[in-house]
Specification:
Strands 4-5-3-2-1-6 form a six-stranded antiparallel beta sheet. The chain is built from seven helices and six strands. The longest helix is centred in the C-terminal third of the chain and has 31 residues. The termini are far apart. It folds into two domains: 159 residues, Up-down Bundle (Four Helix Bundle (Hemerythrin (Met), subunit A)); 75 residues, no CATH class.
Length: 271
């Protein structure tokens, strides 16, 4: 019994003028717009509703965010160039451009993981006299808190305050202040020790939610592009037009991922 081939895999549909996969990706992207649109709307409402002077600023690394923006813009160009190379029957150029796209994705994720690690090793310390400082604990431990210090019977911690910190605190020894030199802080004098994770503030909860979800999309998109570029490349010889369509569809998703970051960067990093 002969299996019937699904229509419109390569040829455009009569009702939409698009082939099936392209219709599917546009429908999927519409749902993605609703997802990120809801999250952006929540961010706007929370920020507008925050009391004056309570919304954090300058917590993120703008130079790294700028580099990531340029990396994704570059990847958008290489995605288009790879698809155009296939249309011109230039297989080697396609492989080259798509390899750059995958490399850009890895660079983006690497920089983002560095930013996340920095947040989980960046702490706010509040002392019994009411002094509050931000900085890094000696050794850059992850997820350290006061309960862990007491459980380990740690008498004091080495603390390197941020450069903008000012003044000395009781129980803190050393040249602190606006220069970021190290100091010793007695555990008994600490009332709060918390890293800048998503639980630290509403702003950071939004930051990790939006950028984390976006990073998952970057990872998923890179995996699909790599699969088409590598393990599934044999389809090019069997059905080049269908293979080219797969590259185009994955490229449309990648452009969406890049566009989301173009909104995320100024909203979270610059405003």
């Amino acid at each position: 019994m002969q299996t019937e081939i699904l229509p419109y895999i390569v040829e455009p549909r009569k009702d939409t003028g698009l082939y099936n996969a392209k219709v599917g990706i546009w429908l999927f992207l519409a749902s993605e717009v609703m997802l990120f649109g809801a999250l952006f709307s929540s961010y706007i409402l929370l920020r507008v509703g925050a009391a004056e002077g309570t919304w954090p600023h300058h917590l993120l690394n703008i130079p790294l965010g700028t580099i990531n923006t340029l990396v994704l813009i570059c990847s958008s160009v290489t995605v288009v160039m790879s698809w155009a190379s296939l249309k011109l029957n230039q297989w080697s150029k396609y492989k080259f451009y798509q390899a750059i796209t995958i490399l850009c994705a890895l660079i983006f994720l690497g920089i983002k993981s560095f930013e996340y690690t920095d947040k989980f090793t960046h702490y706010e310390v509040v002392l019994k006299n009411g002094t509050s400082m931000t900085g890094h604990v000696e050794g850059s431990p992850l997820f350290l808190n006061l309960n862990k210090l007491k459980a380990a019977k740690t008498e004091s911690i080495g603390f390197h305050p941020d450069a903008h910190a000012s003044g000395h605190a009781e129980g803190a020894k050393g040249e602190a202040g606006g220069h970021g030199e190290g100091m010793k802080i007695a555990t008994a004098d600490i009332t709060k020790l918390e890293c800048f994770g998503p639980w630290h503030s509403t702003y950071l909860a939004i930051y990790f939610t939006l950028t984390g979800l976006h990073a998952l999309h970057v990872f998923a998109g890179a995996c699909v592009i790599f699969a088409i570029w590598g393990p599934l490349a044999g389809l090019w010889k069997k059905d080049p037009e269908r293979y080219t369509n797969r590259v185009e569809v994955s490229g449309l998703f990648w452009h969406f991922v890049d566009l989301v970051w173009i909104f995320l960067f100024p909203v979270l990093y610059l405003l």
